[in-house]
Amino acid sequence: xxxxxxxxxxxxxxxxxxxxxxxxxxxxxxxxxxxxxxxxxxxxxxxxxxxxxxxxxxxxxxxxxxxxxxxxxxxxxxxxxxxxxxxxxxxxxxxxxxxxxxxxxxxxxxxxxxxxxxxxxxxxxxxxxxxxxxxxxxxxxxxxxxxxxxxxxxxxxxxxxxxxxxxxxxxxxxxxxxxxxxxxxxxxxxxxxxxxxxxxxxxxxxxxxxxxxxxxxxxxxxxxxxxxxxxxxxxxxxxxxxxxxxxxxxxxxxxxxxxxxxxxxxxxxxxxxxxxxxxxxxxxxxxxxxxxxxxxxxxxxxxxxxxxxxxxxxxxxxxxxxxxxxxxxxxxxxxxxxxxxxxxxxxxxxxxxxxxxxxxxxxxxxxxxxxxxxxxxxxxxxxxxxxxxxxxxxxxxxxxxxxxxxxxxxxxxxxxxxxxxxxxxxxxxxxxxxxxxxxxxxxxxxxxxxxxxxxxxxxxxxxxxxxxxxxxxxxxxxxxxxxxxxxxxxxxxxxxxxxxxxxxxxxxxxxxx
Length: 513
Fold this sequence. Notes:
This is Oxygen-independent coproporphyrinogen III oxidase. It is a single chain. The protein is 35% helix and 18% strand. By secondary structure, the chain is an alpha/beta fold. The chain folds into two domains: 63-67 and 421-508, Arc Repressor Mutant, subunit A (Orthogonal Bundle), CATH 1.10.10.920; 80-419, pyruvate-formate lyase- activating enzyme (Alpha-Beta Horseshoe). The strands form five sheets. Strands 1, 4, 5, 6, 7, 8, 9, 10, 11 and 14 form a ten-stranded mixed beta sheet that branches. α4 (136-155) packs across α12 (400-408) and α9 (277-290) packs parallel to α10 (320-336). The chain is globular and about 60 Å long.
């Protein structure tokens, strides 16, 4: 294995700080050192932390390089990922984690999963139940009431809810009365703020939630909205079984702004049938004209062996080079329009809380992607919902039958999870910082986890040699920085620090590109 030589460029007052090394300048100070001599090379003055508060340089699109690193890998919305969850994690493990959280008294984040949809989108890989019969919702809502009360009892009633997200499925499959009853129950067990200082978001389908519904949701306290758009091209919409005219989305957006929603997110997907850079550019132009505060532009993962509805898509998917051209069009157009590329598939306007959190170093990832409120434990309720409480992850039963049976038995609906050990917590910290900030300073990691980074991660630093040689990363005496060429491959960099990656589980993940 090629060893990685950890280097440092001269300090800012030296005569030349721009000389490239491996195709890009390295950060840091002091002279070049080997890994063995790294500790002696540390400058006595603390280096300026790497940050992304400034505009990121353009991302180069090297098709051959990206194709070579287009391996299967997790999205790292958690670490360990859900692939490592196991059924031996039980109610006693969760109760222990909840007691740990209760002692802190810190604010909470709540995820509410509503699995129902009245129509199926052929691309979808979410845990969902497709039905036209809305009467099914009432039995589900009743179980949610019970689960919310039991979670509050474990975690401590009266704790502040700093963040809430309703996802699915389609949360607006529920009637407004059912949504209101759940919000009332949540506010009875937890403290919901009234001044919009908290972030309360809900995903909506504009085909089933018109302006009147949007106004009602705002009156219930929701202040962020996520709208599924995917693509405005009629041919693409027909192919994916989601016909949704632009005018419908515009009406929803206008309603959200008129009644005071402080942020709106659009979900888009690239890699769908019949998409071309030219056709998707038209969708992007329409989106830019509407100016949502946030955008999630997901790469379509075609896994028909796992998700049978994907087999209904026509055989007209963009190939690898075409998909890369789509991504290049997305980044180029949105960046030119002033959006900040947060990372992977997220974009935000510079004044949005997501961009501000990244600039402040407080951004993190959860099961909804990039998010704020990193200091909150996440409580998941509903079928298949995942939470992160204390030093554990826990997931509910993934079928309606098993979820109902567990709640009706008087407990929670936990089906599996994982309790983190010290190594998991350390690696979660490392991977989260890389995914959120495209950089990593060794010193804070060492202080928080009482390790010597170079000694602990000697193997991983050695494995970074090939990535460094290809200009994806730069490593010096103080930290690791993902270079512009590596930003699209941040999952590949993160995988280096994943101790579970050598198993066969990662083969079930989608390709990183």
